[in-house]
Write a structure and sequence with these properties.
The complex is a heterodimer of chains A (303) and B (387).
Chain A (H helix, E strand, L loop, with lengths): L5 H4 L17 H9 L5 E6 L2 E3 L21 E3 L1 H16 L3 E9 L4 H11 L3 E5 L9 H14 L6 E5 L10 H9 L3 E10 L5 E8 L2 E8 L2 E5 L11 H7 L4 E4 L8 H4 L23 H14 L5
Parallel strand pairs in A: 1-4, 1-6, 4-5, 5-11, 6-10, 7-10
Antiparallel strand pairs in A: 2-3, 7-8, 8-9
Helix pairs in contact in A: 4-7, 5-6
Chain B lengths: L17 H28 L7 H7 L16 H14 L1 H21 L2 H13 L4 E4 L15 E5 L2 E12 L6 E8 L2 E8 L5 E5 L11 E11 L12 H35 L1 E2 L2 E2 L4 H29 L5 H25 L11 H11 L6 H13 L5
Parallel strand pairs in B: 1-4
Antiparallel strand pairs in B: 2-3, 3-7, 4-5, 6-7, 8-9
Classes of the chains: A alpha/beta (303), B alpha+beta (387).
Chain lengths: 303, 387
């Protein structure tokens, strides 16, 4: 995994002021903070619905998309690490007020949101609008950032997978951090939030070593496999999740820079070409060696 | 990794509600991750995977249709899908959940006293207690009305004498729901493990349901306090209605076992080469695979409609009989044909098919033999009892 962009990591250090956290200091918010001694931290987990990694994916005839018929969709396994981390923080600490799960997607994505709610998220945000459909992770991140900014009470921590298994670009966490103007730590393998609920120590795996970084909230973490073991949502919790509140947001609710949507032009999808049949060279070892050299020279033209 | 899902040739998925699919997918994931890796060894060594009881309880697999005592309050389609997925793992694992839910929690919830419910249902749902169901006896199971186990009153206590056989979970159960003849007719009793006069013994030498405990229960002057009787249960119709619950789950479970065999046979046919082409390219193989799929698709639709009737409160036990008979027969036929298609490799438990095949020999026998279900349907359409 690449290191965070230098512009982002440079921001690591003392907590940025309220303005840098992208929130308007409001009188109401201030009063709330004064009265409540516990439960002020808000964690947002980004949840993307993706095709199951075991599913056989078929490209549609027009080459523009993936055939959705009978396609099994799941919560991105890396995003599950983020949900699990958020829920564990809430279970372990008294100062976590709530875990919010956010998804961007069509009607079916509500099912992914429900898994997150069944795993322990308190409420959901579903950004559902044809205008949000994209294969561009920067635009996807811009929609998420717009939803984060729209939250009336500020979010302190955003967690998501280090990449999503559908587009594999790994840009979501970093781009969200950029849009909300927070630091970002990529491929996190450990996270300790201090008792004050502000400063933290995070660990991340880099080539041949582990990097330890310090910082203060707010921050965007993208989670590496193995940091936490996601729980199965139990069936009673799946049923209870139906009753948890989910806010629906459309393009009317979210101000997303339209120019971003045109940033990446999507041309076509095609399956990789089938591997050509393997040619077996028969005979005794010395004959096989001679024939192999002849084939490499005359047919493959590599020697 | 291969796709382990049940085939969906007729888009039956589109007939399921999102939460029904979600329940199925959750249980499927549990089965893939926790049951499939251990189950062949369990079968081979004749061991029930006791370590799965706690995770199954955590998932909410015991008593999932109840909506109190911490249970999920699912509809019966979702319950059926749970059974389907568990049996895609193994009939023994599904049997454990069937017994706990349909044969132990169901009668306690329906006919138990407040005290019995408060004591047992949270424990059974949480997996802290295991239950078993004693109806079948050494002299037979199909004619349950002639049971020899008797309970008589001595003062305010009940004294139980007799024996029960082929009891799933018997030796590991903390509580047995035992049915006995009394002067007033058939009554149900909750017998706790360790009650003097109550002993259990495993039935050895099984070649089927090897990853499941099957036992005998013995009652020798077993004294039970009056509060042990299920106060709401009167007559043979009560245990039979428990069986209708369990049979409903089996009709779904069979789809899981059949699917596992079909998947394995299809995968093998695509890879195995014989006389210059794959088995999958032979007409005979295609006919056999198509037959398997036809049976599975029919079973899926039958189970689904049965479940919708059950959720609407309109299901009749004869419909459940038809479905248990059809679906288990379909699964057994699929398993036998898949076993044959797999060739020599198909006789080892390295592959799942022979395990499912051997298990299904029990499944077609217990909870009403195939013949009993045929005669139940026969009685329904002719009005003549011919048992």
């Amino acid at each position: 995994m690449p290191c965070p962009p230098s512009g982002v990591s440079a921001k690591m250090g003392p907590a940025p002021g309220p303005a840098a956290r992208g929130r308007e200091p409001s009188y109401l918010g201030y009063v709330w903070f004064q009265l409540e001694e516990v439960g002020t931290l808000r964690i947002l987990a980004i949840v993307k619905q993706v095709p199951d990694s075991n599913a056989a994916v078929k490209v549609t005839a027009d080459g523009k998309g993936i055939d959705q018929t009978g396609l099994k969709l799941v919560v991105d396994p890396f995003d599950e690490f983020g949900i699990e981390l958020a829920v564990q923080l809430k279970e372990k600490r008294k100062d976590v007020a709530e875990v919010v799960a956010l998804t961007v997607g069509g009607d079916k994505a509500a099912e992914a949101l429900r898994v997150a709610l069944a795993m322990g998220a308190d409420r959901g945000i579903h950004a559902n609008d044809p205008a949000f459909e994209t294969k561009d992770e920067l635009f996807y991140a811009a929609v998420i950032a717009a939803a984060v900014k729209k939250e009336s009470a500020p979010i302190d921590l955003i967690v998501t997978g280090k990449y999503n298994i559908d587009l594999d670009a790994g840009a979501v966490g970093a781009a969200v951090a950029e849009y909300v103007d927070w630091p970002h730590i990529a491929a996190v393998t450990g996270f300790e939030l201090a008792a004050d609920g502000k400063s933290f120590v995070a660990r991340r795996r880099i080539e041949g070593a582990e990097e330890v970084v310090e910082g203060a909230l707010p921050v965007v973490l993208t989670i590496e496999k193995g940091m936490v073991e996601p729980r199965y949502p139990s069936l009673p919790n799946l049923m209870k999740a139906k009753k948890k509140p989910v806010a629906l947001l459309t393009s009317k609710d979210l101000a997303v820079d339209a120019g971003l949507a045109a940033g990446l032009q999507f041309l076509s999808l095609f399956p990789p070409p089938p591997r050509p049949a393997c040619k077996m060279v028969p005979g005794e070892p010395d004959q096989m060696a001679k024939e192999l050299v002849r084939l490499l020279r005359e047919e493959a033209k590599v020697v | 990794m291969t796709d382990t899902r049940t085939p969906d040739f007729l888009e039956v998925d589109s007939l399921l509600a999102p939460d029904e699919r979600q329940v199925r997918d959750t249980v499927a994931r549990f089965v893939d991750a926790q049951v499939l890796p251990v189950i062949a060894d369990c079968f081979e060594t004749g061991r029930f995977p006791m370590e799965l009881v706690a995770p199954m309880a955590d998932l909410g697999l015991f008593g999932p249709t109840l909506s109190d005592y911490g249970c999920a309050g699912l509809n019966h389609i979702a319950y059926g899908l749970i059974m389907q997925e568990l049996e895609r793992g193994d009939s023994g694992v599904r049997s454990f959940a069937s017994v706990q839910s349909s044969l132990v929690m169901y009668p306690i919830h329906r006919w138990g006293s407040a005290q019995q419910k408060e004591h047992w249902l949270p424990r059974l749902a949480g997996g802290q207690a295991i239950g078993c169901f004693g109806l079948t006896e050494p002299d037979g199971g199909s004619d349950a009305g002639t049971m020899k186990t008797r309970a008589h009153l001595r003062g305010s206590d009940w004294v139980l004498n007799g024996a029960k056989m082929w009891i799933t979970n018997g030796t590991v159960a903390d509580v047995a729901v035992v049915w006995a003849q009394t002067d007033e007719g058939i009554r149900g009793f909750l017998v706790e493990k360790g009650t003097p006069g109550y002993t259990t013994r495993d039935i050895p030498h099984k070649f089927s349901l090897r990853a499941s405990v099957t036992s005998e229960l013995f009652f020798d002057e077993c004294v039970l306090p009056a509060a042990s009787r299920l106060p709401g249960a009167h007559g043979l119709a009560c245990p039979l209605s428990c069986l209708t619950e369990a049979r409903y789950g089996i009709a779904w479970g069979a789809i899981g076992a059949a699917s596992a065999c079909y998947r394995e046979a299809l995968e093998f046919a695509r890879q195995r080469k014989l006389f210059g082409s794959t088995l999958a390219a032979k007409q005979m193989t295609q006919v056999r695979l198509a037959e398997m799929l036809r049976r599975i698709v029919s079973a899926q639709l039958l189970a689904l409609q049965l479940g919708r009737l059950k959720d609407a409160g309109r299901v009749h036990h004869t419909q459940v009989s038809l479905a248990k008979w059809n679906n288990v027969r379909a699964a057994l036929d699929v398993a036998r044909d898949a076993r044959d298609l797999l060739g020599a490799g198909g006789i080892t438990v390295e592959l799942a098919t022979i395990r499912h095949l051997l298990n299904l020999e029990s499944v077609i026998t217990y909870e009403g033999t195939e013949t009993i279900h045929q005669l139940i349907v026969g009685r329904e359409i002719t009005g003549e009892e011919a048992f």
